[in-house]
Amino acid sequence: MSTPLPPRLRFAPSPTGSLHVGVARTALHNWLYARKYGGAFLLRVEDTDRARSTPESTQGIFDGLRWLGLNWDEAVVHQGANLAQHQQDARMLLASGAAYRDFTPAEELDRLRKEAESRGHAFRVDRAAVELSAEEQEQRLARGEAYAIRFRVPEGTTAWDDMVHGPIEFPNKDIEDFIILRSDGTPVYNMAVVSDDIAMRITLVMRGDDHISNTPKQILLYQALGAPLPRFAHLPMILGVDGKKLSKRHGATSVAEYEHQGILADAMVNFLALLGWSPGGDIEVMSREELVARFEESGFLKKAAVFDPKKLEWMNGQHLAHAPIERLEPVITPHIVAAGLATEQEITERLPWYRRLLELLRVRARTIDDIVRQAAPYFRDQVEYDSAAVAKHWKNGGRELVGAARERLAASDWDAAALEDALRDLAESRGIGAGALFQPLRVALTGSSASPGIFDVLVLLGRDRALRRLDSALANLA
């Protein structure tokens, strides 16, 4: 009994824009399957649309995949470079009789199509009218007339067992004899895709379910070329929270935008993996390694997935809270530096203190930007005071309490236990709850009513900076 060959999957984007999150989901599911079953994940840039394809979009695709950590296993294939192979395969079909020449000028086909539409009919090419006798073809070829090559759709049905949707069948009578090579020698999409997939030895074609209508044509081309059929998996479309197709009106739709908004790559991978697939049970938050381990084709879902930005932020918060700080720190540091809070050298010199700060800040954050905002008071000499927090916590004697706290703190040892004893003793001596003292103090130290525990704040700021901060607050908030 022969051992099954490792699967070969490809991600084949068109470089006509940024890496859309829906396209990134398709790439991820291909990558997860390849990694789970020891296969190869290949990248093919379908750049045959020269008018819309740009080097910037191609680079954006590479950058987005690298940020997500979806590394490919072989050299990138550029579809535009494979024209000779596409033409050779099309002419092979012509030679075998699976295709025929169509000398009808494009403008005539356009006229016939519009005429049919005006009568409310769907236009179909009449093979008997289009396909010429061998003698007439020779005459036209001798005159140098241009022609397209059409595939001869056979009778019967075309069916496959889709990995996601199960058995799917198309009657061939509903498929028109379709062009595979235009009169200018360029291939149409289905011809180029099949030719490339055969050359790349693809064993599983996993893509969005908007391609289901292309699949019967491609299967017919595989069969006519005598090539083994790959398996097919058509992933459900992605909708916005309003149930409509995901678009710009739902907010950010490109991977790069979410990277700039402070979303972790691991969180985005986790979130995208669950769009159209489930590991079963109530499991949601998973590391990359756990996703690979749990990825099974039985987990694919048929129904459309919903892209909920709030769910993504929640999941990002979970990854921020639980990722090893050693892995998280180098991801957050460039954002701290970009915000002008510190240089990389300053962070390196205080690395234990910095990692302790991140440990405390990340539990209240959903994005990296949240951490950067929270971190500002620990790096800057001055803080910005939240007006609502000031109004709430500095009225009814709040300022006077901060002044008293400043005196107690100045006389205390500067460790968490001693600082706690000093402040709780002050609150007790005033006959007030600890919170009534801690909140005005928190606003004075950080400018906000939300922060890590007040004793942690004091220790992180250090004696000199904390006391200066309180003096500044007492002066500024008077």
What can you see in these coordinates?
The strands form five sheets. A three-stranded parallel β-sheet has the order 1-2-3. A three-stranded antiparallel β-sheet has the order 4-5-8. It has a two-stranded antiparallel ribbon with strand order 6-7. Helix 3 packs across helix 7 (189-199), helix 10 (265-273) crosses helix 12 and helix 18 (398-410) packs across helix 19 (416-430). It is mainly alpha-helical and 478 residues long. The chain has helices at residues 21-36, 55-68, 83-96, 106-118, 127-130, 134-142, 189-199, 215-224, 255-260, 265-273, 288-294, 309-322, 325-338, 344-349, 351-361, 368-379, 387-393, 398-410, 416-430, 434-446, 454-461, 463-476; strands spanning 8-11, 40-45, 77-78, 99-102, 148-151, 157-162, 166-171, 179-181, 204-208, 231-235, 238-239, 305-306. The chain is elongated, with a radius of gyration of 32 Å. The protein has 22 helices and twelve strands.
Concise account of the structure shown:
Helices cover 50% and strands 10% of the residues.
Layout of helices and strands:
Elements: E1 8-11, H1 21-36, E2 40-45, H2 55-68, E3 77-78, H3 83-96, E4 99-102, H4 106-118, H5 127-130, H6 134-142, E5 148-151, E6 157-162, E7 166-171, E8 179-181, H7 189-199, E9 204-208, H8 215-224, E10 231-235, E11 238-239, H9 255-260, H10 265-273, H11 288-294, E12 305-306, H12 309-322, H13 325-338, H14 344-349, H15 351-361, H16 368-379, H17 387-393, H18 398-410, H19 416-430, H20 434-446, H21 454-461, H22 463-476
Parallel strand pairs: 1-2, 2-3, 9-10, 11-12
Antiparallel strand pairs: 4-5, 5-8, 6-7
